Every structure is written in C-alpha cells, then in structure tokens.
Amino acid sequence: MSVALASLAPDDHRRPFLATYARTTRAVGEAVDDARFEDPEWVDRWDVAFAELYLEALAADTQDGAAPSRPWRIAFGAGPGLHPLQHVLLGINAHVNYDCHRRCSP
Questions:
Q1: Each residue of 31-56: b (16+ CB within 10 Å) or e?
Q2: What is the mean pLDDT of residues 32-38?
C-alpha cells in the first residue's frame, strides 16, 4: 500500500481512501503482532487477502486497457470534486459491500 500511495499524485482523488486503508492495515498488523485477536494468524491471512482485492482494483484503474469492477469504477470515477471523506466512504462501500461479498460468499 505504501508503494501504491507513493505512486499517486498528492492531489489524486484516490489518495484519501488509500491513505485511510493503509493506516487501518498498519493498526491491524500491530494488533496481530500484539496478539490482540483470538486467532491472529487467521486475521493476518484475511487482512492480506482482502487488501489484495482492493490493490487489484486500484491497479486495474491505473493501467491502460484494464478496468476495475463496477463498484470500484464508480468509486474511482467520482472525480476530484468530492470532499475527501466522500471518497473514503465510496471506497469503503465498494470494498466492504462488493469485495467482502465476493470473498465471504460460499
């Protein structure tokens, strides 16, 4: 996530969600390291797998000829006119409601 964040321009409208997600991921990693979860190995695996779904969507959005899933196209396509918090909320919506559904569904 640090590499992805560094690759985005300071005014890129995708930065607020990525920066928030990176901070959250660091906090989860610290909690895993501190054994604050009943099953820290599972949390670590889940955190990495879930993050990969977002990073795949971001990579698809930044590559020519590729396209992320529709929920991510909506979130990424919202453009710079929104408040940063709105971009965070659009990213959370795409990630939790779409990516989690894909990963969590049997």
A1: ebeeeeeeeeeebbeebeebbebbee
A2: 95
